[in-house]
Design a protein that fits this description.
- By secondary structure, the chain is of the alpha/beta class.
- It has a single domain, classed as Alpha-Beta Barrel (TIM Barrel).
- It is about 40% helix and about 15% strand.
- The strands form three sheets. It has an eight-stranded parallel β-sheet with strand order 3-12-11-8-7-6-5-4.
- Strand 6, helix 7 and strand 7 form a beta-alpha-beta unit.
- Helix 10 crosses helix 12.
- It is globular.
- The N and C termini lie far apart (about 45 Å).
- About 40% of the residues are buried.
- About 5% of the residues have low confidence.
- The structure holds flavin mononucleotide.
């Protein structure tokens, strides 16, 4: 059976990738992910704040977002640079050692806020031997005067800057919070994105009503959270040149299979590996292989996108009619 897939221009032995997480914070952790069966590893992110900690331009940009309103100070606390455990130098060193001592693609991750200044670092990541770069352009737009068009432009500018700086493939890990996500995806595709990773998962603060404090929360995902990326992968498959990577909600091989049927080129997992350990990847791949055997699929290409919007005979469930149908079905 042929489990190979091509994702962001990289040939993978199968579609299951270990997404960015603390599991890739050390060479030992990365090796364990490879031994556990991951087809590629996305390293934990290097944050732009680490790279440009001395650059007042970035700090000003961050301050603008953070300090727009007094209330936001507690919801979006200012960055404490001492929280970062990894220096940019150590990150590059890890990329170099991981690339040298593993046989799978190592994808570095940059988490950026502004479109300026970080291309040098992308170049250094390439020189360190990374097979690709994943950009995670995460920012909460607290400024009431920033328009959607400006936000979209910032994504496009960031992508173009990095693409011009490196020759390795560049993926974007995206938020679903665009008013016209399809158009955004198309623009990024045209600007040369090698992959779109759907979707970033956000960690919303909670309120503690006893201490009257805003509490940061981090819970691992569950399979129910896959529906939004699943829907958009199904909607976009076959309509863009770029690869589609799925991230969110993989608990078992069932979710891996669903993402591939929707049209993903690669499926990523973090929560399942944090819960069950790096060896769980092999279990996910074995489940996929067994299912393919039972259903007569010889290769990933045979099943990829079979239930995408473009291929499914009844695309209505993916569209507006689904909304009406679901509401009616409750009766
Ligand atoms: C503890 C933890 C740390 C993470 N660190 C990063 C990170 O550094 N960069 C990044 O892009 N995503 C990071 N993520 C997000 C994951 O890569 C992944 O996209 C998300 O958890 C959804 O996938 P899952 O449902 O398989 O967990 C992190 C997630 C967790 C739970």
């Amino acid at each position: 059976m042929d489990l190979k897939t091509r994702y962001m221009g990289l040939d993978l032995k199968h579609p299951v990738i270990a997404s960015a997480s603390p599991l890739s914070e050390s060479l030992d952790g990365i090796r364990r992910l490879e031994d556990g069966g991951a087809a590629a590893v996305v390293l934990f992110s290097l944050f732009e704040e680490q790279i440009h900690r001395e650059q007042t331009a970035l700090l000003d940009a961050l301050d603008q977002g953070v300090n727009s309103f007094a209330e936001s100070l507690s919801f979006f606390p200012e960055v404490d640079f001492d929280d970062f455990s990894t220096s940019p130098h150590a990150y590059l060193d890890l990329v170099r050692r991981a690339a040298e001592s593993t046989d799978i693609p190592i994808i570095a991750s940059l988490n950026c806020v502004t479109s300026q200044g970080w291309t040098d670092y992308a170049r250094q990541i390439e020189h360190a031997g990374a097979s690709g770069i994943e950009l995670n352009i995460f920012a909460i737009e607290t400024d009431l005067f920033t328009t959607g068009q400006q936000v979209e432009q910032r994504y496009l500018d960031s992508l173009r800057l990095v693409k011009a700086a490196v020759s390795i493939p560049v993926a974007l890990k995206l938020s679903p919070f665009f008013s016209a996500f399809g158009h955004m995806a198309k623009q990024l595709d045209e600007a040369g994105a090698d992959a779109l990773v759907l979707f970033n998962r956000f960690y919303r603060p909670d309120l503690d009503i006893d201490s009257l404090k805003v509490m940061p929360t981090l819970t691992l995902s569950n399979a129910g959270e896959m529906r939004l990326p699943l829907q958009w992968i199904a909607l976009l498959h076959g309509r863009l040149k770029t690869s589609l990577g799925a991230t969110r909600g993989v608990e078992s091989s069932v979710e891996v299979i669903k993402y591939l049927l929707a049209g993903a080129d690669a499926v990523m997992t973090t929560s399942a590996l944090l819960r069950r350990g790096p060896d769980y990847t092999a279990h996910l791949v074995a489940g996929l292989e067994a299912w393919m055997g039972e259903h007569g699929f010889q290769s990933i290409d045979d099943m990829k996108g079979l239930l995408s919007h473009a291929k499914v005979s009844d695309p209505l469930p993916l569209e507006r009619a689904n909304y009406i149908r679901v509401l009616e079905s409750y009766r």
